[in-house]
Give the backbone structure.
Amino acid sequence: MNFRFVVVPLVVITLVSTACVGGGSLGFIATPIPTSGTSGTPTPTVAQCAEAVTGLHIRSAPSARATVLSWLSEGDSVYVLDTSVPFWSKVRFGEIIGYARSKYLKESPCE
């Protein structure tokens, strides 16, 4: 088996699925990380933390039908990675990255 490693600086690689659309295939999307100023220092699109105001699921995609990856209890803290999808926030909880309903999260200081 041959493996090829490709180094791509300053990008985020996201695993995507088209299972909801039909064929059910998987793929990857490389998204450049925005840089600010002339230093070339990466800056996140959203730099905030949040706390669950009630128990809620972290899902694999921004849909109530998506696979549940984990459960947040009231008071659990997450890093908010993206808020571009209406009603959903892309979050990191420990090693898990997924989507949670934005209305059940409130901004909190990062620990």
